[in-house]
Amino acid sequence: MTDHDSTRRPATSSIIAAFAAVYVIWGSTYLAIRVGVETLPPFMLASTRFLVAGLTLYAWARLRGASGASFRQWVNAAVVGVLLLAAGNGSVVWAEQTVDSSTTALLVATVPLWMVLMEWVRPGGTWPGTIVALGIALGFCGVAILAYPSTSHSAKHVDVLGAIALIGAAMFWAAGSIYSRHADLPRSPWLSTSMQMLSGGAALFLMSQYQGEWRTFDPTAVPMRAWLSLAYLIVFGSLVAFTAYVWLLRVSTPARVSTYAYVNPAVAVLLGWAILSERVSTRTFIAMTFIIGAVILITTKRRNRTSKQPEQTSARKPIDDVDPACAKAPCEAST
Question: pTM here?
Fold first, then answer.
């Protein structure tokens, strides 16, 4: 799509298809990771995904005319990439070895809660308001319901170390997202994201080497469905859905696009139940209601507050929101 094309009114079918891609594909990445880590080493899976996707996106951005980045921008992109992808997504893929995809998606969905909390407690931070504070409390109640050990045989057991890693992943993702909003990064969202993918992927590769994953890896022992899950994460999770997300930020409102934050967990829970036969207990439904309700409350309130402020120049705010991070993320979030 060219810049000239972006000035035209897009077809309704194109907008629906783009929203479907962001909702379903990003919601399904948790399932793809779960399938992949059954036989692929976790950090190898993640590093391969982001290095391949990052190289592809970087080449595409430069071919589209994006200018090269400065050394400072590379450093900032590396910080964001390490926080979001190496620490954030790396914790997710490691945790999904013992935690099912639906629980993972719900715990990672707390990223907006951590972002508000970090913005509040940082030096010079401001009180987020009663409604947002209520949303934070509601969300953490959902986390407690989901992760607290239960003696009931009917309740779904959640691995404690995996849950801690996922909470840490959400915190790293929030920190990286906040840093990216104030860092000097390329104005091209594709170039900026590709640099973050390359930096995060490189850090994940070093983690994989440190764990000795490549020394003991036997590709012949990996089933086809694991390779397909990796290909799905690269092509659809990191490239197709992200491109749809960037395009939506140009043709729709940030408030509408941000709805992915509370649709993705529901999609992940549904797919985990339907495809991997993951058990969805009453406790999971209660926790999901608390967490998704909190995310809706926080994002809606913050969008309303932002809309009342004077409009900022250029497209800097949407570009900030585009980081795979918000991927997710995810980028992958995102996940």
Answer: 0.85
